[in-house]
Amino acid sequence: xxxxxxxxxxxxxxxxxxxxxxxxxxxxxxxxxLPGKGRMKTTGxxxxxxxxxxxxxxxxxxxxxxxxxxxxxxxxxxxxxxHVPEGATPKDGPSAGLAMVTSIVSVLTGIPVKKDIxxxxxxxxxxxxxxxxxxxxxxxxxxxxxxKTVLIPQENEKDLREIPDNVKEGLTIIPVSHVSEVLEHxxxxxxxxxxxxxxxxxxxxxxxxxxxxxxGAAAH
Amino acid sequence: xxxxxxxxxxxxxxxxxxxxxxxxxxxxxxxxxLPGKGRMKTTGxxxxxxxxxxxxxxxxxxxxxxxxxxxxxxxxxxxxxxHVPEGATPKDGPSAGLAMVTSIVSVLTGIPVKKDIxxxxxxxxxxxxxxxxxxxxxxxxxxxxxxKTVLIPQENEKDLREIPDNVKEGLTIIPVSHVSEVLEHxxxxxxxxxxxxxxxxxxxxxxxxxxxxxxGAAAH
Amino acid sequence: xxxxxxxxxxxxxxxxxxxxxxxxxxxxxxxxxLPGKGRMKTTGxxxxxxxxxxxxxxxxxxxxxxxxxxxxxxxxxxxxxxHVPEGATPKDGPSAGLAMVTSIVSVLTGIPVKKDIxxxxxxxxxxxxxxxxxxxxxxxxxxxxxxKTVLIPQENEKDLREIPDNVKEGLTIIPVSHVSEVLEHxxxxxxxxxxxxxxxxxxxxxxxxxxxxxxGAAAH
Amino acid sequence: xxxxxxxxxxxxxxxxxxxxxxxxxxxxxxxxxLPGKGRMKTTGxxxxxxxxxxxxxxxxxxxxxxxxxxxxxxxxxxxxxxHVPEGATPKDGPSAGLAMVTSIVSVLTGIPVKKDIxxxxxxxxxxxxxxxxxxxxxxxxxxxxxxKTVLIPQENEKDLREIPDNVKEGLTIIPVSHVSEVLEHxxxxxxxxxxxxxxxxxxxxxxxxxxxxxxGAAAH
Amino acid sequence: xxxxxxxxxxxxxxxxxxxxxxxxxxxxxxxxxLPGKGRMKTTGxxxxxxxxxxxxxxxxxxxxxxxxxxxxxxxxxxxxxxHVPEGATPKDGPSAGLAMVTSIVSVLTGIPVKKDIxxxxxxxxxxxxxxxxxxxxxxxxxxxxxxKTVLIPQENEKDLREIPDNVKEGLTIIPVSHVSEVLEHxxxxxxxxxxxxxxxxxxxxxxxxxxxxxxGAAAH
Amino acid sequence: xxxxxxxxxxxxxxxxxxxxxxxxxxxxxxxxxLPGKGRMKTTGxxxxxxxxxxxxxxxxxxxxxxxxxxxxxxxxxxxxxxHVPEGATPKDGPSAGLAMVTSIVSVLTGIPVKKDIxxxxxxxxxxxxxxxxxxxxxxxxxxxxxxKTVLIPQENEKDLREIPDNVKEGLTIIPVSHVSEVLEHxxxxxxxxxxxxxxxxxxxxxxxxxxxxxxGAAAH
Lengths: 220, 220, 220, 220, 220, 220
Ligand SMILES: [Ca+2]
Ligand SMILES: [Ca+2]
Ligand SMILES: [Ca+2]
Ligand SMILES: [Ca+2]
Ligand SMILES: [Ca+2]
Ligand SMILES: [Ca+2]
Ligand SMILES: [Ca+2]
Ligand SMILES: [Ca+2]
Ligand SMILES: [Ca+2]
Ligand SMILES: [Ca+2]
Ligand SMILES: [Ca+2]
Ligand SMILES: [Ca+2]
Known about the structure:
Six copies of one chain form a homohexamer. By secondary structure, chain A is α/β, with parallel strands linked by helices. Chain A has a single domain (about 15-195), classed as Ribosomal Protein S5, domain 2, CATH 3.30.230. Chain A has seven helices and nine strands. Chain A has helices at about 50-65, 95-110, 135-145, 165-170, 180-185, 200-210, 215-220, and strands at about 15-20, 25-35, 40-45, 80-85, 115-120, 120-125, 130, 150-155, 170-175. In chain A, the strands form two sheets. A seven-stranded mixed beta sheet of chain A has the order 3-4-2-1-5-8-9. The longest helix of chain A has 16 residues, at about 50-65. The relative contact order of chain A is 0.18. Chains A and B meet through strand 2 of A and helix 1, helix 6 and helix 7 of B. The structure holds calcium ion (CA) (12 copies). One calcium ion (CA) binds near residues 93, 95 and 96 of chain D.
């Protein structure tokens, strides 16, 4: 089933695009949310740059938590595991950043990812999309694998003129400059924001902590 | 006794299939559940890819915990040790993933694994079975070792036409595409699910925590 | 968008200047403040010297916390992530120290950094600016990238005579000897100090801790 | 004194058998139990495989704790240190597994190990004995060192026909297939089991924890 | 400003003396004390031997804490950061030990270090000064940098006869055999001791801990 | 002062004997006891074998704690730092084990070590002395350094016939087989034992812990 688009919209499963000396390939990215203690685990023979891109993706998602309906303290009660099969194939590079963000958002919100979309693009800590390499090989792999829509960084739009016409006709190619656009295209529905006022929450937590010892005494 | 099927149905002991330059071999995989603190230990001169396949297996099992009768918080009170004898032989690769899942499920549920079954297949975080290499050598080793039934990934079914007839006649070969099928074939009985509502449980835990200080005072 | 000045004043985003064998380049430095536990994360394929320069920058900022309106214990409730895109490009050296300090101060205070300023300079634990190399290449990259103002270490002022006139005319070049000057030039407004008396705070904290058990008894 | 049998029955000291390119040797294995926090320390220039064999031995012993009279939570209140003198000589391999188990059981129970016994054999997580190499050299070293009884894995019994008669006459050689047989032969007396019902104990612990806040209020 | 004496007496900043194949140099050593949890951080591309010399200096200072007015438990409430600019220059060796001690004492006591003094010498865990190499090159660098007074280990006094007269006339060279002499010469004033009776303090702490639960009951 | 005997009886300072390709040398071993959390630190460019010998020495001392007047829980309230100057000289090997034990016992008990004694010998976890190499070179270094008494392992006594007569006449050479003999010869007075009944202490601690919540309620 590898090298092919997913068969159904799934939570936490995103199709990325890889590029190696032997051509492009689809890259299935899987995230899992588990009851835990705020730990992040990554597996799949990932190089340091790809691991760092997961760190950046994770921090970006934490920074927008309330916008996707997650209260920040919740992060300390979940573990997140990001895995990239096939486990024996080495993978590296930052270009799966947008896919990592999408996968993590999907798993945190429980909103499935559309099955016939693929994406490529580095992500910054502010959610901006940065240019990637191997666009042609990646688009060919997407077409071959039955993908319908591909999100690429705005910065790579200029490279589209070198892409063969049949590829551009077989795929809907959407240049994006920010994660917000990615989520809009990739998730089956929009996450709902939750209110979160850091200062107010902290004050409330402290009041509660103090009260644990005090009120009983006052009631005598 | 190595290179031979197990002599009895045992809890936590699963027969995997290894493939090296000198042929196939049976691989005994042992898991142990100990009272502890949620720690995972792996031993047996395992390479990084096999260690990661244990991580993926473990996360997958945690993600289906209620379905096998385990409440998620229970994971923080057990240690799990996965060992692959013989300790001096280096082992690597992702193809023992399904066996790792089976071993961990067996040890968590206390349900024994059938002694004359062997299995091979990479596992994803969603419990899907991925293709492996060395199918012919692995099946030969299974036959030689007295195994009756072998579970292989659905993706490898196409490779069966290259397998000698005597091997296919001596073994029941079952292609599987998901862990659920593996557990059905490998465990001596089906695990019973337990109800688990994450949101409700968390609310209850918080109410209990708050009550520890408060109700006593109110009763005065 | 890389190699160009930022498009807007942003919180936590600072433009540094890099210098390699193939010339100078703009270096976007991003910090993020997250609810957390005092952890510091750094990503972007950073060498050990650049990581240490972030450590030094971070300690310096902690040492002046009250001056920028942050009470020291607050540091144990935030995580800070510093990332330097592009993630596949190795970066090293201490010369981004002043930019690291500025980025961290911006993210802690919520005060944006001016979008058309760039800076280069090592920082000491006392906030002093130390000389850097590659001044000419860095200034050329700044000019090319649309930067208007560049802060350089006072110790490098003597190197300005080797810089072509058109570069010096196209940029406002400001030599600085201390972080205080950097913040004045780079932030859109001055941080407001908060009062912090370590000894008094500690005494208050201890009194509160003791009181948790005591006052109830006294009230009988 | 090295290369010779122990002079007295001691707690935690077991004689193993090593095999190198220059012949066999006695290997003194020492364990110590200290008041602590569940930490395990290993010293003596041990290779990774030998360290893993100590991990496996330790997990096996934890898994049979009640059978040797130790309640599982007790493990979190002790540190165990396993040392293999002579500290400058590198040691490796899994074949000291049975000796490691015996040493740890002895130190946990306080039951001494017979001084004129030696043993060799890998151990699995279920306490099974696996075959080792260098049987002839190891038996020669045992004879030379004044050992009276040697425990070897059942799987190695077939190799006894290649052992010179004088060696077989000078030693009592006992093939074993499980740790239970090893302990019976090596310890001066049998450990007494303690009752331990994991589920019941946990329930009791939780009741106690809850009671700390609650019962007082109920008594008013 | 590097390679020159400090411009003012500063807290936590000490001038050491380095010696490399290209001659001697001044080495600015900076320590910072931050509210924290007893953590020690070191930066500046320091080799393992220099890091260990900071460990030794730190332990020595902890061992004399009451003599410099610091109660030992205070160490668990501070973090200390020792940095040696310039961050891109590798530094190693134990000869900055006395300077490390002085820097840490200065930062803990808040007493400034005299700006025109430099020092070289390894330190032991008892505060003894041990001989160093490169005395001539170090003294030349001190003279060149505007230093007035140099502290050297007593064990190096015999090497002074090989030092040119102009160097010996331009500098006040003081041989020292213990940290106590170093502090007397280097700090602008003597630290005041604080009383500390470990046994009494511990007893008091325990009494307080027990009382937290008890007195309330007694008052009924 | 290095290469010479100590000038006074000191707490925690022991003279060991090193042996390298260029001859023997005195090795000053320093231990320091600090208020802390049970941490052990080692410095002085020590190789892994010497670090492990310190681990073994430390565990042995913990195992005899009551015999030297130290209650075991006390170990969790102290940090111990073992340093071997000169910091730039690499040191390795297990032969300083007896000296490490002596240094740690001295620092824990506050009993000084005799200044004109030196010692060499590996130590086991039971406190036994094992043979060392380079006896001749070590004794020559001891004589040269003004040492009066040298403790050597009993197992090395046979090597004394190869030692020149003038060395044997200039030194009191005492073969020892156990740490108990070492301490008797090296410390200026014998440590006093303290009573310690692990089981009783634990029961008392548990009773206290339970009582913290209970008695108040009972008193109403
Ligand atoms: Ca593929
Ligand atoms: Ca990529
Ligand atoms: Ca085998
Ligand atoms: Ca495999
Ligand atoms: Ca660039
Ligand atoms: Ca730089
Ligand atoms: Ca030997
Ligand atoms: Ca062995
Ligand atoms: Ca310099
Ligand atoms: Ca130096
Ligand atoms: Ca020396
Ligand atoms: Ca030695």
